[in-house]
Amino acid sequence: MIPLSETLARVRPSPTVAATQRARELAVEGRDVISLSAGEPDFDTPRHVKDAAIAALEAGKTKYTAPDGIPELKAAVAAKFRRENGLDYAPSEITVGTGGKQVLYNALMATLNPGDEVVIPAPYWVSYPDIVRLAGAEPVIVETSLEAGFKLTPAALERAITPRTRWFLFNSPSNPSGAGYSRAELAALTDVLMRHPQVLVLSDDIYEHIAYDGFQFVTPAQVEPGLRDRTLTMNGVSKAYAMTGWRIGYAGGPEELIAAMRKIQSQSTTCPCSLSQWAAVAALEGPQDFIDEAGAAFRRRRDLVVERLDAIAGIDCPVPEGAFYVYPSIAALIGRTTAGGRRIACDEDFTDALLEEQGVAAVFGAAFGLSPHFRVSFATSDAELEEACARIAAFVEGLR
Q1: Within a 13 Å sphere around the CA of 40, how many CA atoms are in the beta-carbon half?
Q2: Which residue in 231, 213, 214, 211 sits closest to 222, CA to CA?
Q3: Is 24 exposed, middle or buried (CB count within 10 Å of its CB: 0-12, 13-18, 19+)?
Q4: Contact, 203 vs 170, CB < 8 A?
Q5: Partner of 148 at 20 to 30 A CA spacing, among 30, 197, 268, 285?
Q6: What pTM, to 2 d.p., does this model score?
Q7: Rounded to an integer, what distance in angstroms lies between the CA atom of residue 253 and that of residue 360?
Q8: Across residues 280-309, what is the average pLDDT?
Q9: How far apart (Å, rounded) are the C-alpha atoms in residues 39 and 325?
């Protein structure tokens, strides 16, 4: 046997990736599968962004770059933060990584030691706790509830912070719930953080531009300037510009932290893809019409999915403020048996049976730290969403 690192035993493979891969395998076998598990827009990358990558290719911009981003992209990121978030960062305070996940990974690997703790509200993006564990620290999970809109309360945050707390990891609008914090709600949390100067803040803003019904996005360092020097504000081009496969994430933060992250990146991926960086410059500096056009489609799809799922007896589907997911409760369905004879003892049983019996791939709530729920991505066509919701309804109606 190959001896493996003990650290590896602390983490699990990504459940969202596993669900998507299982759906692909069934499709290859000839099964009629609708995948609602992947967290990526179904739209094509905007034309001007692709053209910028092609132009960079033709110009021979295919060599290694600086470890954490070309100057042109850092300038575009700095301009974006000033324009949209009221945050002023120097180039030395900006990092560009191979996707938002690498930015998060670099930050946590650069700062965490055994015994450190990271406060993470649940439900959370599946990778947060495992990246913390890879860095040798411990995730401290604070559950929220559907009744509270899946939002962390200041009192719960206060209780979770200890002398060992190193980071507070925050995501709004949220994957998987779509919950978005208003300025007042976020200010109540930043008031708590101001009382604990040892706690760094990592704000994952990747769904900033996917918001509904007049929701006004704000980020912690914007709401409380006193947190600026201990906050890493992370974002990227994957969701807003349908550029998931281009793998470009970025962040602004304290120069000392950015330098430490650069050191780690120089010994891992060396640098982000050169062509993707030039494409990201075009995304951030070019026409922004795509964001509104995609947002209108997502809003229509959100309303469709919420209406269809909430009408199913036994499913309680709240309305998300942002992102492109819903996170319905299936508490009323636990303990029942499917038409195929499977007992639903937990939300993983529910999504497994839904895939096998109806060909709909979703992700179980325990993967995100809060059960009994399941996550549905509505980043696919209206027709597929209609059919998927009909299959989910048929599946639930068949329970006994």
Answers
A1: 18
A2: 231
A3: middle
A4: yes
A5: 197
A6: 0.95
A7: 41
A8: 98
A9: 8
